[in-house]
Amino acid sequence: MFPNASIGILILALFVTTESADWGYENEKGPDHWADLFPEACAGAKQSPININTEDTVYNPALKDFSVFFDPPLPGSKFYVHNNGHTIQVNTEGKFFVSNGGLTDIYSTAQFHFHWGHKAHHGSEHTLDGAPSPIELHIVNWNSQLYNSIGEAAVEPNGLAVLGMLFEISEEDNPVLEPLVNVLMHVRDPDMKIKAEIPAVSMRAFLPRAADRYYRYNGSLTTPGCFESVVWTVFHEKLTISRRQLHVFRQVLKPSGHHVHKRSTRKHSRSRAVREVFEEIGIEDDKREQARFRRQIVKNTETHVHESLPEDATSHEETMEHHESNHTGSHGHEVKPHTGHHGHNVKPSPISAHPGAHESNMTHAEQVRMMLVNNYRPVQPLNGRVVYRSFPFFNEPINIDTEVVYIDKDNSELARGAATSLVSSAYMCIAIIVAAVLC
Ligand SMILES: *[C@@H]1O[C@H](CO)[C@@H](O)[C@H](O)[C@H]1NC(C)=O
Ligand SMILES: *[C@@H]1O[C@H](CO)[C@@H](O)[C@H](O)[C@H]1NC(C)=O
Ligand SMILES: *[C@@H]1O[C@H](CO)[C@@H](O)[C@H](O)[C@H]1NC(C)=O
């Protein structure tokens, strides 16, 4: 299954850890509360994602193009797609590495995954000059030169190097995403633990053409435990995704079924809201999908919030929302619209992943839509961190004294070295010395 047993076990351990830890993108488990749920890490000062204010970034000529290998992948390399309930993740099997790009070590690619949103133009974790993108791809690489496993690397400074790609909507499908998009429906139920295999391709295929134009900063994982072990790269050039492809992503995360509070709405507007949701997620003509979706809502509702279900919740449409109740429930918690206050037990906002959104003036359909598929963490404070830029702005003087030596541009020797041992070969030692000098 995995390149070797220890990596496999550690990757599994990571999954188990993050999946058993109870967190999500909404309500009391949402990003606003991660700092309370995981105070040792998610409350740190170097968290990700961030907004990149391009004017404040600092040009660093030492940040050159990446080396990405193997390209093409070695025979026997595989990609496995699964839905872990928080994201669609593709685990790599085989040897995939990135180096250079201002990284001082060689990093081994473990997996890539996506963050997206439901509302138009929201969904990316990083934002450029305050503007989010509809979806963001993260390629997660671990320092295989200094550490023996991703589990070890994930908690160490410089242990991970994550490459972040933002997307913009295009008319045409992005052919690179097609094999993945084509299997998404097969993995839509995270509980079934389905792994779909797709052909392995070079990671270069997921980088923008101008892979030498990027932003660089020190940050964290964007999901709990939020370890501050990540050297971040966010590329300047965006990749493309068609509306149709984005649509498929938006359908694969389970609705949470958490409270949706809304001042009592008349029946017909509820059905209209439901219809709008079906249209939005592209199942308006598919009765089977609608039934499945409704069952899912009911199931989640029963699981999570049965105590606050209204009496007439047997109607499927009714379960799309809960009447706002101003009673104090049998569990002793008051249920009322989100007030924006933290630190007490009353926080039934379905939209905590979405800064600036207020339940009070959102339409019901908007609330349900947002509840469906957001899986991005809002931007975190920079706290004085510097964001570097690999390319000069127009008219920015370039210091010609800065000579950058590549560690290696090709696939072969270095990758073998990285794969087989830590610093065994003289080649690697030279690479480290060169890297050290560059710092
Ligand atoms: C990241 O942190 C390390 C260690 O503190 C520092 O040497 C490096 O310059 C930082 N990189 C960036 C991009 O800020
Ligand atoms: C609950 O609120 C409704 C209006 O929102 C009001 O008519 C009703 O009296 C309230 N019930 C209680 C118990 O406060
Ligand atoms: C919703 O309310 C917030 C403040 O409560 C306000 O900033 C925002 O503009 C409102 N949005 C709409 C669409 O009315």
Structure characterization notes:
Residues 21-301 form the Alpha-carbonic anhydrase domain. This protein has 439 residues and is of the alpha/beta class. It folds into 2 domains: 5-248 and 378-438, Carbonic Anhydrase II (Roll), CATH 3.10.200; 254-373, no CATH class. Helices cover 24% and strands 19% of the residues. The chain is built from 10 helices and 17 strands. The strands form 3 sheets. Strands 2, 3, 4, 5, 6, 7, 9, 10, 11, 12, 13, 14 and 17 form a 13-stranded mixed β-sheet that branches. Strands 1-8 form a two-stranded parallel sheet. A two-stranded parallel ribbon has the order 15-16. Strand 4 (78-83) and strand 5 (88-93) form a beta hairpin. Helix 6 (267-280) packs parallel to helix 8 (364-373). The longest helix is centred in the last third of the chain and has 19 residues, at 287-305. The protein is globular, with a radius of gyration of 23 Å. The two termini are 37 Å apart. It binds 2-acetamido-2-deoxy-beta-D-glucopyranose (3 copies). The site of one 2-acetamido-2-deoxy-beta-D-glucopyranose (NAG) has 2 residues, from loops.
